[in-house]
Amino acid sequence: MYLNEFDATMKHIQGKWKIMIMYELYERKVVRFNELQRYIASISPKTLTNQLKEMEKDGLIKRVVYPVVPPHVEYSLTPKGDSLIPVLNVICNWGLSVIPSDQLQRTLCDE
Amino acid sequence: MYLNEFDATMKHIQGKWKIMIMYELYERKVVRFNELQRYIASISPKTLTNQLKEMEKDGLIKRVVYPVVPPHVEYSLTPKGDSLIPVLNVICNWGLSVIPSDQLQRTLCDE
DNA sequence: CTGAATCCCCTCTGATACTG
DNA sequence: CAGTATCAGAGGGGATTCAG
């Protein structure tokens, strides 16, 4: 089977919210579960959990649990997650070139 | 909503076989339906049709019909499709960096 | 040869309620 | 606060058959 590398990358970024999660972690460095849920307005806790678990398993993000009450969990990008950011920018910039400018609302490219 | 550009690009490359189709068209320049079906061994005609239609609608590929019997249809990349190739290479190369080298069978990156 | 039509399955995601 | 449990829906893709 061909295209292993392509699929390898795609597996990391497939998932409706992963890029948005990456973006939030990239911007804010350290974010809690509840914050992600608020920033990404329409995501359900179940889906957020799923995406975070996959990303953690893929080595893109780090999950740190503080054993306190109430629970406190922090998510952040790993170096591997950081290394994916430039790739996302390339993807984003190509998209920029194919969207009619009057449909652009806000760009995250090159931020 | 954010991330318009990213989603715009992703819409173009999402679909289980689109990258493989892109790759075949990039390598062979002009390919017929039946050839694609053979090159991409396990794709069903229905799925192949779907992917080609979407890609044509997205402007990535060009479809030329010769009104003869039996039918003769040729597919090729458009300039827009060509412009996506470097993006695919970036994606592919990142994947190359995260796959253990002993799992690599064949690379399409930088070809 | 190039698809279209049909049926089936399966994964992903959403909505909601609940727990330690 | 940070999830888990459960139910449900939509869409993508596979297998097969048929048509112009």
TrEMBL record, chains A, B:
Asked whether the UniProt record includes DNA-binding among its keywords, one would answer yes
Domain HTH hxlR-type, by residue range, is 4-103
The UniProt entry, under InterPro entries, shows: HTH_HxlR (IPR002577), WH-like_DNA-bd_sf (IPR036388), WH_DNA-bd_sf (IPR036390)
- Which GO molecular function terms does the record list? DNA binding
| Keywords from the named record | DNA-binding, Transcription, Transcription regulation
Q: Does the keyword Transcription apply?
A: yes
Q: What is this protein called?
A: Positive regulator of hxlAB expression (Formaldehyde sensing)
Which organism is the protein's source? Brochothrix thermosphacta (Microbacterium thermosphactum)
Q: What is the lineage of its organism?
A: Bacteria, Bacillati, Bacillota, Bacilli, Bacillales
